[in-house]
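Blackboard transcription, Thursday session:
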Amino acid sequence: MLTKSIQKAAFGLAVGLSVSLAAIAQTDAEKAIDRYRELVADGNPAELWEAKGEDLWKKKRGPKNASLEKCDLGLGPGVVKGAYVSLPRYFDDVKKVQDLETRLVTCMDQHQGIKAKAAIYDRDDHKDVISLVAWIAAESRGMPVNLPQSHPEEKRMYEVGKRVFFYRAGPYDFACATCHAADNTRIRLQGLPNLTNNEPAGKAFTSWPAYRVSNSQLWPMQKRLEDCFRQQRFPYVEFGSDVTIALSSYMGVTGKGVKSLAPTIKR
Amino acid sequence: MKKSTFIIVGLSVVLTGCATMYSAAELEKMAKEAVEKSFSAKGIAKKERINQDAINLACTNAELSKTLEAAEYQAIKYPADGKFLGDWKAGERVAQGGGGSTYSDSASAPNGGNCYNCHQISKEEISHGTLGPSLYNFGKLRGNSEAVVKYTWGKIYNAKAFNACTNMPRFGHQGILTESQMKDLMALLLDPTSPVNK
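(Written on the board underneath:)
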């Protein structure tokens, strides 16, 4: 009887303590943002892109009037489940490491004869790439990140990515690491993931594509990186360039084992 | 007289030329090549002893960076009129601004100071970042002696003159902020009537 009441008191104390600790760690504004995220996560508009993406995968299109159902995303022709969490990886047919977006551009060319080389964000063919990415990512939801590192080019891209991550330059002397190499930091009220650590790296890596409430756009990783470099005051980073593939490789390898979240919803 | 002026001008051109003729990457490459060409294997000391592993390469750069701080410190430009403090209200606006200098901005768009992105400054603004230390009560805690004023100017003008690898941009050195904007920020931090010091 006495033990039970002590346990109860201890439990109450522990709950009270953890609640007050959380209150200290989180400002009211952050709590409001979290609550907002909870509310909107229920119906992520990314589902609209997912539905279109599935359709685009299966539909016969382009000069070759073919679907993408024989496209090899790294796990064999037509295998979609698990592909998102194992990219970027090396592809022997193009002799280079590709991420999901650049691989889809290759597949559209190989299988459908669609030349989507100049993939400008959210224009023309890139609209289709974004929809395909949303559906393909959703097919890997909950699966652990597992980028292959057996090919020398995959290892090289990881090492290059790590160095690019710390590459300081530009008028403001910024690197990725300026904002993403320490725990529990913020810009204004926005929490910043420490991308040098496993869990935050894996969560950030699998947070894109994400539906952005602020501009009603679906942003894939290529666009996320492009906007990071814009805010870093760097020149324009080219779609599918080595820097983007290398950084994705670095984030993905660092985030190994973290369960995939994409597509997510962001402020 | 004319001749000596000419020599002095000539010399200063050569000196500044030395500092700017090669990029940092080119100088690093030349130093590496010089080391590569200058040593040969002798006895048990094989040639590969000169190869740097990742840790030695990192530390060479870290130690080099300490010597660069002094040069950056020498290059700090103080206000020509000797007035360091402008208007704290204008300073608050500069501190709030986070725009400018991206490829989607026009060249004529003024740059914000981005201060609140990383620092707490006035107590009223709760939307502040935590990448840098809190600057609340900056002047109240330090006073505004000449040494504090000059130091604060130096930190805003070029924080890398004090710590080569700080995350803080070099607002004066890189021409991000104008002298007038920096004076207003100085007032925000040091003016006793600024909300920062309340």
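Lecturer's comment: The longest helix of chain A spans residues 2-25.
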